[in-house]
TrEMBL record:
Transmembrane segments: none
Active-site annotation: E228, C262
CDD domains membership: ALDH_AlkH-like
Protein family per UniProt: Belongs to the aldehyde dehydrogenase family.
UniProt GO cellular component terms: cytoplasm
Species of origin: Pseudoduganella rivuli
Protein name (database record): Aldehyde dehydrogenase
UniProtKB keywords: NAD, Oxidoreductase
SUPFAM superfamilies: ALDH-like
One MF term in the entry's GO annotations: aldehyde dehydrogenase (NAD+) activity
GO biological process terms held by the UniProt record: aldehyde metabolic process
Aldehyde dehydrogenase domain segment(s): 12-453
Length: 489
């Protein structure tokens, strides 16, 4: 029998996690969650600092793990994995005391004589289910917010990036006892077993299809959820756009992590008057960054691979289907399924029935759709489920207002792309099909907090005016009070 304390022994799960072990960890976190309700900012910051220091201590090991899982370059590990988490940590450490401070609210006319404030309480025991495309950032980022809010946490990383997930598991086990934070590796059975537990909050990042499953599971326990999902994030490049800047930035946002990004540009609508200039600029950028020919691009060490063969086949099917239906390849198009390689690819003349125009691509292929009528583009965008992001390249103020006011998306960038994800003072999240709730910075803190309304009475107890018995005089007073609320401020 293992003589280690229960909180340590329960970390020993290997492979597909044992449901009994997960239940035991969930149970032992209850006492901690209750105790942490009145935890101080200093205590929470100390836990976040432990995570930060452990991340940095294993920096080189993370570089190796990412290279092993899907050949992600060291620079991209730093920019897209370490940087977002370190920014979350930096902001939490500097702002947590302000975030935690109760927010006083002024009384309304009918509440004169009372005092009130909003108290931020931890939700309790929370579950973070993270995806494979940014396994460190999308696992430890929500963890920072959950710890800042004072919650205990169970983490389920993706089984598709086993080296990174195993390293994160070792770090969590080293710096946190299981009754505070625990990480369980595994695939679908592990996720299902965790979703059967009555967590107080679930933070899920992944596809809309799986998001519906998570939301249904949460509904069984009336648990709150934050769902960071996806969708087809459109780009509009209008006639007034700075074409060169648009090409340089979009080729970065699209092919970062080889297109495996929830906010990656998915379809580019480009005005006919600048379309050829845009295509030429994009081709030039791709050659400068990844190599001038097919062989050079395939050998390029700056291009992340598709995560596995199954996903390579999925993206290849979308590409091949479009080409077979008449789409023209403007750049790239090379596929090596055995090497999980698809070249950075640009398409044009994609027919309406092609699957690539309706399914989220999540890979290194960008369809370019020529347009002349902005209203038609807006109509096409609104005919799809609401996306996680929308990008507009324009210097025309009226066009910018038109697009932003007549479309809906989780977030939007004007003359930029993807960068809103990294802006810690902006809420990051989707709308309807692309997600529920927000994350990052104070929004992440609030996602893992219950905003409790607290009201205090005083000697001026005006509510007595509404007590029975309802005499004619009292009825008249009540009616007068209601009628007063019709008056303007």
């Amino acid at each position: 029998m293992n003589d280690a304390p229960p909180s340590q022994a329960l970390h020993a799960a290997a492979g597909e996690a044992d449901p009994h072990r997960m239940r035991a960890v969930f149970d032992v976190q209850q006492a901690t969650a209750l105790r942490w309700r009145d935890s101080t900012a200093a205590e929470r910051i100390a836990r976040i600092v432990k995570l930060r220091d452990a991340m940095l201590a294993h920096r080189t090991a993370f570089h190796t793990a990412f290279a092993q899982d899907y050949r992600k370059p060291e620079a991209e590990v730093e920019v897209s994995e370490f940087l977002p988490v370190m920014d979350e940590i930096h902001q939490a450490i500097g702002s947590l005391r302000r975030w935690m401070k109760p927010k006083r609210v002024w009384p309304t006319k009918t509440m004169l004589g009372t005092r009130a404030h909003v108290q931020y309480q931890p939700r309790g025991r929370v579950l973070v289910i993270a995806p494979w495309n940014y396994p460190l950032s999308l696992c430890f980022g929500p963890l920072v917010s959950a710890l800042a809010a004072g919650n205990t946490v169970i983490i389920k990383p993706s089984e598709m990036t086993p080296a990174v997930s195993a390293l994160m598991g070792r770090i969590i086990a080293d710096i946190f006892p299981a009754h505070e934070v625990a990480l369980f590796e595994g695939s679908l059975p592990t996720s299902q077993a965790l979703l059967d537990l009555p967590f107080d909050h679930i933070f899920f990042t992944g596809s809309p299809a799986v998001g519906k499953v998570v939301m249904a599971a949460a509904a069984r326990h009336l648990a709150s959820v934050t769902l960071e999902l996806g969708g087809k994030s459109p780009v509009i490049v209008d006639a007034s756009a700075n074409v060169q800047m648009a090409a340089e930035t979009l080729m970065w946002g699209k092919f970062l992590n080889n297109g495996q990004t929830c906010v990656a540009p998915d379809t580019a609508y480009v005005h006919a008057s600048v379309k050829q200039a845009f295509v030429d600029a994009c081709r030039s950028v791709l050659q400068q960054r990844y190599g001038a020919g097919a062989a050079a691009q395939k050998a390029c060490g700056d291009l992340t691979r598709v995560v596995n063969r199954r996903h390579t086949q999925r993206v290849a099917h979308l590409l091949n289907d479009a080409v077979e239906r008449g789409a023209k390849v403007l750049a790239g198009g090379d596929i090596d399924e055995a090497q999980c390689y698809i070249a950075p690819t640009l398409l044009e003349r994609v027919p309406a029935g092609a699957a690539i125009l309706s399914e989220e691509i999540f890979g290194p292929v960008l369809p370019i759709v020529e347009y002349t009528d902005l209203d038609q583009v807006i109509h096409d965008i609104n005919s799809q489920p609401k996306p996680l992001a929308l990008y507009l390249w324009s210097t025309d103020r009226r066009a910018i207002r038109r697009v932003l006011s007549h479309t809906s998306s989780g977030g939007a960038c004007v003359n930029h792309c993807v960068a809103h994800f990294a802006h810690g003072n902006l809420p990051f999240g989707g709308v309807n099909n692309s997600g529920i709730g927000n994350a990052h910075g104070e929004y992440g803190f609030k996602a893992f907090s219950h905003e409790r309304a607290v009201l205090r009475g005083s000697w001026l107890h005006l509510v007595k005016l509404f007590f029975p018995p309802y005499t004619p005089t009292r009825n008249k007073l009540i009616r007068m009070t209601v009628d007063l609320l019709r008056l303007p401020f």
